[in-house]
Specification:
globular, Zn2-C6_fun-type_DNA-bd_sf, metal-binding, disordered C terminus, DNA binding, two-stranded antiparallel sheet, mainly alpha, single chain, 24 helices, 562 residues, transcription
């Protein structure tokens, strides 16, 4: 073998002969292989070192330029830099300039989550989205009839066999709500369902803010329900504020105000349930926004952004009367109109009024009590009705009206039940105890399935009775009744679906352990302060639960805590 390609070696360098050449008694020469570019050993390390060196030289040059004194026009001619003498930064190749010294973990993680969510979405058959939409109309439509069935079916019919994007923003919001706890998507796992839900939620918020319309309000409404149930109370209030601003922008609040100003005060109220899903449903759905906003923010003291409309409704709260023949209209009337004096009371308390229960405050609280009771007086205690064909009908709006009325009474009076210097302390305790037992009666007559498949507001209402009774026992030593366990069971059933109820379940178990066993669990002291609402302390309780849930969390019942 002869070759002249062994040019890498100097003339005085002699290479050893191989055994083969010696035995064959031939003169052998080494044949050099041509160099090939590639990722051989040390290539990547060398490339990175060169790029880092270049980056360091670039930073050093940039720092030297920024530290150079700025020359003003008043300097001597010898110090003035002529245009041709000015420094210019060397051009860096795109490869070197784009090479990051540290990876951007946040961006990479976000892209990975988004790509994973899209892949999960594409893995689901299109028929599955029909199932989720049906669940909305079976489980949520009765108490939140804001969607038109025909419109959702038309949007579903337009979906391709492999879905990577849902064009209809309202349908997208429905899927975001229902996918998170759907057992039929068990192949995605809990984290996969949660990731897909958050991805769709983000898309809905982006589109709804960019395109204000009635559809945007409907989608935001559903996302607010999702956040409320996910124990994200601040986000719920922010999204409801977006609903109000969008409603102001497209004029539906102004349209409603003009309509009710033209009516007699005793005639003002929401229209029938059928109007909410008709072609001209803007006014009806405005009532729905007001109702959910007022019920979900019960106990929080701030002035509503739609001040003109709210002030008008507050002024007629004790004059107008709902149509008691329709349980849905009665519930919306209570939430949107009947609760306005309650919100005014909390606002006045935050401003320094109503500190003690006497005089003017006594009159205000009693007016609230009698007005709340007027909505449920004569109502049956059960929400179940046996129809003519033998089927059993469950009226969730009947349940919500009763729970909301009694929860409002407890929240108004509870701040006075431990004030021993107040001469009306016994009245406050009697009012709270009455509503506490009424809430037990309502929950006692509900099945576990209906308790689980429910609005997250259900847990919020029941929690008012539980917190009041535990605080009263801790402050006075008055032992709780055996029927108290009915309320704890209801919260536990609701916790099977909603993280909000799971957090409340953990907190109440900790409170019971502190009362019964004097266990030093460190529950935040503000939990026992009944002058603060559960919304006021939600974030501090969430922080406490995140570090203590393993002690009291029933995994086999509650599922993963988010």
């Amino acid at each position: 073998m002869a070759s002249s390609e062994v040019s890498d070696h100097s003339d005085d360098q002699r290479l050893s002969k191989t055994v083969f050449c010696v035995k064959a008694k031939v003169e052998c020469q080494y044949l050099g292989q041509p160099r090939k570019r590639g990722l051989r050993a040390g290539y990547v390390t060398e490339l990175e070192s060169r790029i880092e060196s270049l980056q360091g030289q670039f930073d050093a040059l940039k720092n030297s330029l920024t530290s150079t004194p700025v020359v003003t026009t008043s300097a001597t001619p010898s110090l003035i830099i002529e245009p041709q003498q000015q420094f210019h930064l060397p051009e860096i190749s795109p490869a070197a300039n784009s090479f990051p010294r540290k990876p951007i973990n946040g961006t990479s993680r976000h892209l990975a989550e988004r790509n994973g969510a899209v892949a999960d979405l594409m893995s689901l058959p299109s028929s599955y989205f029909h199932t989720l939409a049906d669940f909305w109309f079976k489980e949520d439509h009765n108490w939140l009839p804001i969607l038109e069935y025909e419109r959702i079916q038309a949007s579903l019919a337009e979906l391709p066999d492999t879905v990577d994007y849902i064009p209809d923003v309202v349908l997208r919001a429905v899927i975001a709500l229902k996918i998170e706890y759907s057992s039929q998507a068990i192949s995605l796992g809990y984290k996969g369902r949660r990731r897909l839900s958050l991805h769709l939620r983000s898309e809905v918020l982006t589109e709804a803010m960019a395109n204000p319309s009635l559809s945007s309000i409907q989608a935001l409404f559903i996302i607010a329900l999702l956040d409320f149930g996910s124990d994200n109370i601040p986000s719920t209030f922010n999204i409801m504020s977006m609903c109000r601003r969008t409603g102001e922008h497209i004029g539906i609040f102004r349209q409603l105000l003009q309509r009710i100003e033209a009516q007699s005060p005793h005639q003002v109220g929401p229209p029938s349930r059928e109007t909410f899903t008709s072609g001209n449903s803007q006014v009806a759905q405005t009532w729905g926004i007001l109702a959910f906003d007022a019920a979900s923010s019960l106990g929080v003291s701030w002035q509503d952004k739609t001040a003109a409309l709210i002030d008008h409704l507050s002024g007629i709260a004790y004059v107008t009367a709902p149509d008691f023949r329709d349980s849905f209209v009665t519930h919306v009337h209570l939430a949107a109109i009947g609760l306005q004096p309650v919100h005014d009371f909390f606002l006045s308390f935050a401003r320094g009024r109503h500190q003690v229960l006497e005089g003017e405050t006594m009159t205000a609280t009693e007016d609230i009590y009698h007005n709340s009771m007027s909505y449920i007086r004569g109502m049956p205690t059960s929400g179940y009705t046996i129809l003519a064909d033998g089927a059993v009908d469950f009226d969730i709006n009947h349940i919500f009206t009763r729970l909301l009325s009694h929860a409002a009474v407890i929240m108004v009076y509870q701040r006075y039940v431990l004030d021993n210097e107040n001469q009306n302390i016994q009245l406050a305790r009697d009012r709270c105890m009455e509503s506490y037992h009424q809430i037990i009666d309502v929950v006692r007559n509900m099945s576990d399935a209906d308790t689980e498949i429910n609005s997250p507001a259900f847990a919020h209402f029941v929690a008012q009775a539980i917190r009041f009774r535990l605080t009263l026992e801790r402050g006075t030593g008055i032992a709780r009744e055996a029927v108290f366990d009915i309320l704890m069971h209801a919260i536990n059933m609701c916790a099977r679906r909603w993280p909000l109820a799971r957090r409340l379940d953990v907190v109440f178990r900790a409170a019971l352990a502190e009362i019964d066993y004097q266990a030093p669990l460190g529950l935040p002291e503000e939990f026992w302060n009944l002058k603060k609402s559960t919304h006021d302390i939600s974030e501090s309780l969430k922080t406490w639960v995140s570090t203590n849930k393993e002690l009291l969390w029933l995994r086999n019942l509650n599922g993963p805590y988010a």
